[in-house]
Specification:
207 residues, 68% helix, 2 domains, globular, mainly alpha
Length: 207
């Protein structure tokens, strides 16, 4: 109940701020809408079950699309006609990097050597046709290690990558205490696969 009341207070305060900004700048102000969507996204993540079910996904995808408009790019969700070949938006890819880094850490804690753990995560990402945010190459073991290093640099855990890392690591460590190590490793990779397919449904399509 305390979490709910605190979360509702946070939600309504953020919505009031967004509404005040919207009234001040007019209905062409995307930032106020972006802030309102962010308030709902943050509220959902306060609760374990809704977060585990990825109920925030539609909101974050729309939020990303609005952000990309300010960068001169129109995402398919805002286009009259859907087009293929869309690149990852920044927040989506940041969440992906955090989840992949957490999976790397979990595999190591479950007894897999670091080089093998990095390659296992990279292999899943390649199989799902995930690409680095920049460039046209495939995800490699080095790419995955770079994402883990990105988390380490954000020691205050302010960024999306680090926050996602902490959330997924905490959930995974609870799993490690319940299952044998080989099963825990499989489960960690399966959860990463499920999350990517949920967040990026276009990757379900055959090449």
């Amino acid at each position: 109940m305390r979490t709910l009341n605190s979360g509702l207070g946070f939600l309504f305060e953020r919505l009031r701020q967004a509404q005040a900004q919207f009234e001040q700048k007019g209905d062409s102000d995307r930032q106020s809408v972006f802030s309102a969507l962010g308030a709902f996204w943050s509220f959902i993540t306060l609760f374990e079950k809704p977060l585990a079910e990825n109920l925030q996904v539609p909101i974050t995808r729309l939020q990303d699309a609005l952000l990309m408009l300010d960068r001169g790019k129109t995402e398919p969700i805002l286009k009259p006609v859907r087009r293929s070949g869309r690149a990852f938006s920044s927040e989506t890819h940041a969440s992906l990097r955090g989840h992949a880094a957490a999976t790397l850490q979990l595999l190591q804690q479950a007894g897999l050597a670091r080089p093998d753990a990095r390659e296992a995560v990279a292999a899943v990402l390649r199989q799902l046709r995930v690409r680095p945010e920049r460039g046209s190459g495939s995800v490699t073991a080095t790419t995955v290690q770079n994402w883990r290093d990105e988390v380490a640099r954000d020691f205050r855990r302010h960024g999306t990558v680090a926050r996602m890392y902490e959330h997924k690591l905490a959930r995974g460590q609870a799993m490690l205490s319940e299952f044998p190590k080989d099963q825990a490793r499989r489960s960690a990779l399966e959860e990463l696969t499920y999350w990517i397919r949920t967040m990026l449904p276009e990757l379900r399509k055959p090449t």
